[in-house]
Fold these 4 entries.
Entry 1:
Amino acid sequence: MSITIEPTVRVETRRQPIPPRERLEPIFEVEGLDAIYGAKAAIKDVSMEVYKNLVTAIIGPSGCGKSTYIRCFNRMNDLIPTFRQTGTIRYHGQDICASNIDPVAVRRNIGMVFQRPNPFPKSIYDNVAWGCRVLGMKEDLDARVERALTQAALWDEVKDRLKASGLSLSGGQQQRLCIARAIAVEPDVVLMDEPASALDPIATQAIEQLMHQLKSQYTFVIVTHNMQQAARVADMTAFFSISQGGEGERYGELIEYDATEKIFTAPSDKRTEDYVTGRFG
C-alpha cells in the first residue's frame, strides 16, 4: 500500500495582534529598490515599510536576494566594488544613500548579526566593548558591557570570566555575545541574517526569546529560511521569490508583505501560499 504525504508546513503563530498599519510608525520606507551586482540584478522594484519595535521576517527560497536586501538597510553592500542600487531607502524620513550621509553613522544606528557567530579573538569583555571604544562611547564602559550582556541573556553565564576569550563560548553563547556586541552601542535597528541557522534547537529558542524580549527597545529585521521560526517570532513577514526576466534573467521580487498571521493562514498570492505550505522553494 502506498501512502501520499502532502508536503505542507504547519505553523502556529503566538503573538498579540499588531495594530493596523496606519497606526504603526515606519522606521524604513523603501521605494522602487533595485540591488545590482555588476550587470546582474539581485532584487528589483522592492517597495515596503518596516515598522518600529516590531520583528519583520524576510522569507523566500535561496537566491531570491534576502541577504542582499537587508544589507541595503545599513549600506553593508557598499563594501562590494561591483554593487550599486537604485530607488530609495528612507530611515526616519532621511535617504540613507544621500551624498551627505556617512555610512559609518548609518551602521552606528543599524547594527547587524550574521549567520554564523563571529566573535573577535578577544576577551568576552573586549568583544562587547569594541564598538563603544571605536565610537568614543567610553564613559561608564563597564556598565555598558554589563547592560548589553544582560540584555543578551548572557551576563549570568559569563560575569565571572569576562577576561576569557569569546571563542571559548559555545555556539549559542557566541551568537548571544555577537548580539550583545551589536546592542552595546545602543542602535535603533538590529538586522539578523539567519542568526540561528548554525545553532541547535535550545540555542535557537534562546535567540528567539531575546528578539521577543528586546523588541520593545529595538526594531528587528530577520532573514530566515525557517518558516516555523518566522511564524513564532515575526510580527510582519515579507515573502520574496525568484522571477524570470528576458534572456534567462533571474532576480528577487517582493511578492507579498503583511502581518505574519495573514501570510501564514490567508495569503493573498498563490505563490506565497505554495511556498509556506511547502509546495515549492
Note: Residues 21-102+110-116+188-276 form a domain with the Rossmann fold fold (CATH 3.40.50.300).
Entry 2:
Amino acid sequence: MLTSDQIKAYALNELGVDKIGIANIERFEDAPDFSDPKNIMPNCKSVIVFLLRIPRGCYRGIEEGTHWASYTVFGYTGIARRLVQIGYNLSKYIEKKTGHEAAVVSSATTVPERGPRGNAVEGKARREVSVHHRIAAFLAGLGEIGYSKVFLTEEFGPRQRIGVVLTELALDPDPIPIPHICDRCRLCVNSCPGAMSKTETVTCTLEGIDLEWVQLETGRCKQAHFGFDRKTSPFFVKRFPGVYMPMEKQENTWLQAHDLGHALFDAQPTLAALAHHEFYLAVCGARGCHRACMKHLEIRGKLKETFEKKVFAPMKYWELPEEPEPTKYHGLTYGPGEEMPDEVDFFSGGSWY
C-alpha cells in the first residue's frame, strides 16, 4: 500500500512538482459547502495538493512593457495544462498501485459566479461543484491565502499554480502552518486595476484558524485580465483608441466579462495570434496580486528562493493614459496619417506595432 511519503517522492522526483502536501477529508468540514471534495468523490479520504512554481523571469516582459506571451504560456495557461497532466499521471499511479480511485480536479471546473447548480438530491452531488484550490492548498499545509486571495508559500511567495487530486486512499496529512507570510500591506489592492475592493473582505475559519482575504470584483478582474484596462493594455488602446471603459466603474459579471473578452480577442492582432494557438493572453500580468506582492516580499527578505537580482523591480509601474487623447499618440496607437485597415492578416508576418 502506498504511503504519503511514497506519493510525495513520486510527485517530486518523477512528475516534477515543486511542492506537495496532503489533507485528510475531515479538514474540509468547515469549508464552503460547494467546495466539499465529497461532492465530486463521495468516498474521498484524502486531498493531495501540489504546486508548480512560476518562473520569475516570465513576468519580465509585462513588467517592462515589451513581451506578453511568456507570462501567459509559462505562468498561466501553459502551466495550468501541465498541472492537469501531472494530476492525471498521479491519479493513474495511485489507482495502479493501490486499487483505490483517484481523480484530478481541474481549476476550470466551474464558472465562479454560478456556484453549485440544481437541487440537492440525497446521495448525489449537485451540478457544477468545485474544490476551492487555495483552501485545499492551505489545508494541505503548503502555505497560506494572502490578502489578495492569491496563495502564498515561503519558497515562492505568489509565484505558483495549484493542482488537486482526490483519492479514496487514506493518507497521513501534513501539519497546517499558522499564516505568517502576508502582512496585509495592501499593495495588491493599490496596484491592481480595480478588481479588489477597497473596503470589503471575506472571512472564514478553517481548522480553528481565522482567514481573511479581499472581496474580489470578479468581472473587473476578468476584464483587466483580458486587456480592457487602457492603462495596462497597449493592445486595446491601439485597436480601440477612442473607447473609454474605466475599470472601477465596470459592473459586468465574471461571465459577461469573459464573453466580452472572447468576442474582442480576434480584433486585436497580438491577442488573436495567441488565441490562434489556443492561448488567451493574461494581459494584466497579475500586476497587483502577483507582481506587487512578490516585490514586497522580496524587499522584506521573506522568500526562501532568492536571485542574483534580489528585488524583481521597483514598485512603480509604467502606465498609459486612461482617457482617450485623440491628438496624442504614445507609440502604441495608430499615429497621424495611419489608417486602421478594415482587415488585417495577423499571420502573414506584417508589422503592426
Note: Strands lie at 19-24, 46-53, 102-105, 144-145, 151-152, 160-167, 196-206, 209-216.
Entry 3:
Amino acid sequence: METNQHLFKELEAAEKLFSDGSIKNAQKILRNVLKESKTLDKIPNKLRHKINAAISKSRYFDEISSFATNPKRNELIKKLDDLIKNPNKNLRKHAHNIHEIQTQWQVLDLSSKPASKSQWLNFNDLTKKAWEPCKEYFDEIKQIKIKNALSRNEIINNINEFVKNNSNKWPNSKSLIIFLQKTFKEWQKYAPVLEEDLDKLKKLYFDARKPINEEIRRQENENKEKKTLLIKKVADISNDDNEKNINEFIKLKDEWSNIGSAGKKNEKKMWDEFNNSANRFFSERKQKQKDEINKICELNKKLNNDEISVSEVKSALNEIADAKNTKEFKNIIKDIKSKINSINIAKKKDKFVAYANIYDVLLGKIEVDKAPSNFVNIIQKSLDNTESNIDELNYACIKLEVLAGIDSLKKDQIIRKNIQLEMLSNKFNKNNNLTTNDMDSLISHFIDNFSKNDSKTIHSNIWKRIIKCVDKLIS
C-alpha cells in the first residue's frame, strides 16, 4: 500500500510537469512509475487508470513534438543533401557547416522526442557522405601539426644551445626572462600538434628551460640579499643634518636601481620597505613644504586683494625652496602675470588718456598738467604760435600712420610714399637730424606746428587720425 501511494504521488508530480510544459521531466517520472509498477503482484484499478491516462498524455505530447520537429529534421536532412551535391570550396567552412547541422540535430533530440530510426539512419548516412570532401582538409591539418612539432623541436634545440653557450657566464636575470618570454611566444605560434607528440614535446620544452629558470632564481636570491643590505643601510642613516640624510638615501636609491629584480614575489614588498625606511627623512621637508605652501597662499590672497605689490610678492617668492613644483606656486606665478598684465593695461589706458588730452590742452580747454609731462614745455611754447602749418601737421599724421601700419587717406598716398622713401633713406644714411621717426617726436612736431588761433575741423580730424596711431603705438 505504501508503494502504491508513492506511485500515485509520482504520477501527480508528472501531471503537474505535463501541465507546466516540462514534458521530458514528466516522461522520465512516468517511465520510473511504469518500471516500479511491473514489480507489483497486482496493479490496483485506480492506479492502472491513472497510469494509462499519463501514458496517453505522454503519447499526445510525443505526437505534438514529432509534428513540430519532424519538418525541422527533414530540413536538416535536406541541408546535408545540398551540402553533398554542392560542397563548399573552402573545406574549413564545409566542415563548420556539417558541425553546425549536427549540433542542431542534437538540440532537437534533447528538446523533443528522438528521431525515428529511419530518420536517424538517413541523417547518419548523409553525414558520412558530407564529411568525405574534408578528408584532404584533415590530411592537410595533420601535415600542419607535424610541421608545428618540428618547429617546436627546433625551439627546444635553440634553448638548449642558448644554455650551452651561456652557462659559464649567464646574462642578467632580466635578459634571461626576456629570452624565455620570446621563446614562449614562438612556442605558442606553432600549435596545435598531434596528440602523440604533445606530452613528449612539452616535457622536452620544460626540461630545456629548467637551467635558465634556476639561474633566474639564483640571481633573484642574490639580488634579494643585496637589497636587504640596502634596506638596513637606510635604517642606519642618522645625521643631524636632515639634508645629508636625504642625500645619502638618494645615493642608496641609485645603487638599488642598478641591482636587478629580486623576483615578482619580493620586489614590490622590498621596494616599499626601502622607501618606508626613508620616510622619516622627508617628514621635515614635507612640513617645510607645507609651511611654504601656506605662505604662498597668503601672498596670493594679498596680491589679489591689492594689499601687496607684485615686486614684494616676487621678493618673498625668492625664499621659497621646496614648494616650487606645487600647484600653489604655479597658481601664484600665473596670478602675478595676470596682475602685471592688468597693471600694464591700466597704465596704457592712463597714458592714452593723457595723450588724448593734448589737443584739448592746446585749445585751452583743460589744464596743461592733464597732458604727458614731457610735452608741457613745447605745449607752452606753441601758445605763442599765430597760425598752424597744415602741411607739417599732415606730415606728422601720415608718418605716424606709417609707423602704426594704418592706411592713410587716398589723397595722401603720394605724401605717404615720399615719407616711406625718406625713412628708408635715413635708415641707410643714418642721417636723422632733420626728421623724426618716433611717436613722441612726431607729436611734438604736430604741437610745434599747431596754433589754436586758426584751429578748424581739418585740424581736429588730423588729431583724430593721430590718436588712432597712438592707440597702436603706445607701450
Note: The chain is about 75% helix and 0% strand.
Entry 4:
Amino acid sequence: MNQNLKKLFETETKKVDEWLGKLLPPESAEPVSIHKSMRYSMFAGGKRLRPVLCLLAHEICGGEGDKAYPAACALEMMHTFSLIHDDLPCMDDDDFRRGKPTNHKVFGEAIAVLAGDALCIHAYGILGSYVGLPIVKEISSALGTAGMIGGQVADIESEGTADVDAKTLEFIHIHKTEKLITTSLRTGAIIAGADEAKLAAITKYGQGIGLAFQIVDDVLDLTSDTATLGKDVGSDLENNKATYPRLYGIDKSRAEAKRLVNEAKDALALFGEKGAMLRELADFIVERVN
C-alpha cells in the first residue's frame, strides 16, 4: 500500500471507528454479553475496506460533509455479521479472524449467532434514517438470497464436489463478495446524488475489484500463513471449496485478478483525476498480502 493510500485508510478508519463507537450500543448496556460480543468483532481490526469505498465514492460523486458515515458504518456492521456467521462450526469452523480468536471461540456459538443477527438488525436501523434514498433496497439485495446468502448457499452445496465449473465458481464469488463491495460504492454514490453515468462507472469499477478481491483471497489461502493473513489458512483446500486456484491454478488466478483490476480502473475515466485514489486502491487489492 502506497503512502497516500495508507494515510487515507488511517484517517478514515479512525473516523469510522469513532462513528461506530457512537452508533453501537455500549458494552455496559444490558444484556452486557451480547453488546460485548458485538463490539468485540467490530473492533477486532480489519481494513474497513467497505466503509472506505463508500466514502470515496461519495466524495468523487460530489458528496460533501459527514452524510455518508452512518451508511458506511452500517455496511461494516453487515460485513462483520457475515464474518461472525461464516466462522461458526456449522460453516467454515475457523478459530481465528483478524489475528484474534473468532467470536464463537470467545463468547460461545449461541451468543455469536445472536451478535451477528444484532449487528445486521442494528445496521438496518441506521439505514432507515436515509429517508427517500433507495439504499435499504440496494443493500438488502446485496445481502439476501440474490446476493451474499445466495452465494454462501452455492458455496456450501459445492463443497466436496469433484467438479465445479467456471459458471458456478463465478456465481459463488460474485454473490458472496463482489455484490457487497459494489453496493458499498453505489451506496456512497447514491447518497451523493450521482447521475446515471457516474453510478454506472462506479458499478463497473466495483464489479471488477470485488471479484478480484475474492480471487486474491483464494490465492492467499494457499500461499500465505496464519500470522500474516490474520485468519486460518488452508481451510478452502481442507473443505474442498470451489476456488479460482482449484480450477485455474495460482498463476492464472493472479492474472485474472490483475485483468479485472485493470478493467475496473478503466471504468473510472469519467472521473479524471478525482478517481486517482480509487485506482490506487484497485492496485492494492491485487498486491495485498492479507
Note: The chain has 15 helices and two strands.
